[in-house]
Amino acid sequence: MRAQAEALRDYIVAIRRDLHQHPELGYRETRTAQQVIAQLTTLGLPYHGGVAGTGVVAELKKGDGPTVIIRADMDALPIIEDTGLPFSSCHPGVMHACGHDTHVAMGLGAARLLLDADFAGTVRFVFQPAEEGCYDDPDGWSGGQRMVKEGVHAGASAAIALHQVPILPTGQISIRDGAVMAASDEFEIVVHGRAAHAGVSPQAGIDAVVIAAQIVTTLQTIVARNVGPTDTAVVSVGTLQGGTATNIVAEQVRLTGTIRTLNMETRAHVHARVATICEHAGAMHGTSVDCRIANGYPVTMNDAGIAAIARGAARNVLGEEALVELPPLMGGEDFSFTAQAVPSCFALLGTQGPERSPYSLHSPKMVVDESALPLGSAWLAQTALDLLAHFAAPR
């Protein structure tokens, strides 16, 4: 499979470069979808467009048998590209800084590899919009969540996906059991104070800035003193806004931030601690503090059985030395919704070239080693074949 994939390198890279040059934000991937459809049409694969807004779903069916999903996300990020590549983004302020252009290209490469493969069953290719966020979705759903809601995963025995990671050398792939990516939640805290003259009569006010400062400091104790040393969590305040003048006690301060956890128990515990800290801070100062925590993406969990088959496919096409195991990453990933709907495996594919660029995901300077792309296509295709064989075998 690897040799066949290497023969498709020019095809895969050309698709990637075209998409990289024309990035589109979530739920706006109209040109990207058109390019995907054009390739699927050339391959002779039936498809449905307009799925979950701008998504595309195609199937390669060869007789009766199980169904395996290969998922690729399509959206870019609101980032100004600074790579200097000859195929840099031609859309100012939008860049494929997470590598979803490579995911689409590798997914289409896998489809082309599987056209001539011998198997019984169906490979369903899911080209998904809006992984990076919910954007203006009326229900507040990301593309992965909306696709699950629309039943894209019905009848599937397993699903696989990969994410390129420039922190891992090309030729390596990380496939682990259990948590791969963190739950990603957001909080908004509003401290209600009472305005007064900060120089003449500060005692007449309730200083929302002082309360907010205490909340920020106390939130840092959650990870240090409420989460066990062998567990993992992140609580970060990202914005703090309040006050109107240097001589006025602030009447209101607004804080926002993120919570990252790797299991449901820790997630619930951290949420409860944030809410309690806010409630008690308000009571201590004779006022109220509103706390809203919005659940984002759940933990991306690999099924141990599917991951074992995926590792076997990696050994087959990439070699034993390719397999590594990165610790769980604290970024969020909406393949987590797929993994809740069907047994799944999410792999991390190394795309760091020999120049060892220090720039990683979401950097305006991120560069992908394109020699990794045929490896990703080969792994996707081989894993799909091995899963189809596994689920078709008598039990």
TrEMBL record:
Residues 186-281 form the Peptidase M20 dimerisation domain. Signal peptide: none annotated. This is Peptidase M20. CDD domains: M20_Acy1. PANTHER family: METALLOPEPTIDASE, PUTATIVE (AFU_ORTHOLOGUE AFUA_6G09600)-RELATED, PEPTIDASE M20 FAMILY MEMBER. The keyword Hydrolase applies. It comes from the Bacteria. Keywords: Hydrolase.
